[in-house]
Amino acid sequence: MPPIDRRTMLGTSAAAAAGVAASAIVPNRLLNAAEGQRRSAPRLRFGVVGIDHGHIQGMADAVIRGGAELVSFHANDPVLAAAFARRYPGAKQVSDERAVLEDRTISLVLSSIIPNERAPLGIRVMRSGKDFACDKPGITSLAQLAEVKRVQAETKRIYSIVYSERLESRATVRAGQLVRDGAIGTVVQTVGLGPHRVHPPERPGWFWDPNRYGGIICDIGSHQFDQFLFFTNSTSAEIVAAQVRNVGHPEHPAFQDFGDALVRGNGGTGYLRVDWFTPAGLPTWGDGRLTILGTEGYIEIRKYVDLAGRPGGDHLFVADAKGVHYVDSRDVELPYGRQLVDDVLDRTETAMSQAHCFLVTELALRAQASAHVVRGQSPNQPFERKGNETMD
């Protein structure tokens, strides 16, 4: 059982007691009961500004599970707004983001606005006296990162980026518990694979423009940097090498559909590969995988599909001195939403430290800025360095 923090131990309400039960691996019926009790007495009120990516639904659900109440939302796209309103009928749609930012009863703002607009919005949110959590990539340039860090230090507000491949994956949360308990010894390396599927009819124009989404490593590669830092327990790191390509989308010449990188930290090393080549025959949008190599074994996670035929996702395998084990992770609690609500109320950093959040972003941005752009489909084609960024 994971350790119970002091704040939870001291709670005397039924909701607190349910939270203690949910912190262990317990049946779904107990988790559902605990979540129902938390929802009945909201611990804080939150709003949403910008719903341009569907991840906003998982983000909102996470903090609702954590005891928050969605009060209002603002969105520019009427189609997306209508769908969001149907999913959250209790939330009021407002015509201007200021109605959310100026509501003194709201403590937290969530967003999945177009990626290059997230940092400017987060700055406005922090300056309004509220905490901010956004979809990845939460920042799309080093200049944006510098300004976000300056305003965050000035306001002391939370700027959190929801790396859902770790925070909203039950198998990955369970892997974190196993690593912490020494199941595979000292972590040496992580290998993170983040394949995705493109659905062109469903993709807006900004999806194809790296100036809007930040580039493939900045975007979906940020998940892998988050997991690398977390599992190797690295607090500093540098990019060893990175590259990006456009192999299969010549109609969008600026788009990047493949990227990979090597990273070295003070707690281990990592390799990541991200792409937009998930085949149509796979029954999900991507076969996301994570391998964590330790000195006494390794863990492999198949996050969304098991090619061997097991149904669903969250498949976790451990190989160690005693053999190979399949670990059922379906009933593991997802703690991020609850922890984020705690952090807003208590001014703590239990969901994600601010230093970790910013270091993940910096690594993704530096890898993207320094990546070699591979031209053409032949390995003999020359490559070129992108941008003028230098590595520290």
**Under the CATH scheme, which architecture of the largest domain would be assigned?**
2-Layer Sandwich
Structural class: alpha/beta
Strand order of the largest sheet: 14-13-12-11-7-10-9-8-15-16
**Beginning-to-end CA distance, first to last residue:** 41 Å
CATH topology heading of the largest domain? Dihydrodipicolinate Reductase, domain 2
What is the count of helical runs? 15
CATH superfamily of the largest domain: Dihydrodipicolinate Reductase, domain 2
* Total DSSP E strands: 16
What share of the residues lie within helices?
25-40%
Q: Give the low-confidence spans.
A: 1-27, 33-39, 378-392
The quaternary organization reads as single chain
Whole-number count of domains: 2
What is the CATH first-level class name of the largest domain? Alpha Beta
Folded structure, characterized:
The protein has helices at residues 6-10, 14-22, 28-40, 55-65, 78-87, 98-101, 118-127, 142-155, 164-167, 170-180, 210-213, 216-219, 221-232, 336-346, 354-370; strands at 44-49, 68-74, 92-93, 106-111, 131-135, 159-162, 187-195, 237-245, 258-265, 268-275, 289-294, 297-302, 315-320, 323-328, 372-374, 383-385. The chain has 392 residues and is α/β, with parallel strands linked by helices. It folds into two domains: 42-162, NAD(P)-binding Rossmann-like Domain (Rossmann fold, 3-Layer(aba) Sandwich); 166-334 and 366-374, Dihydrodipicolinate Reductase, domain 2 (2-Layer Sandwich). The strands form two sheets. The protein has a ten-stranded mixed β-sheet with strand order 14-13-12-11-7-10-9-8-15-16, with helices on one face. A six-stranded parallel β-sheet has the order 3-2-1-4-5-6, with helices on both faces. Helix 7 (118-127) links the parallel strand 4 (106-111) and strand 5. The relative contact order is 0.14. The model is unreliable at 1-27, 33-39 and 378-392 (pLDDT under 50).
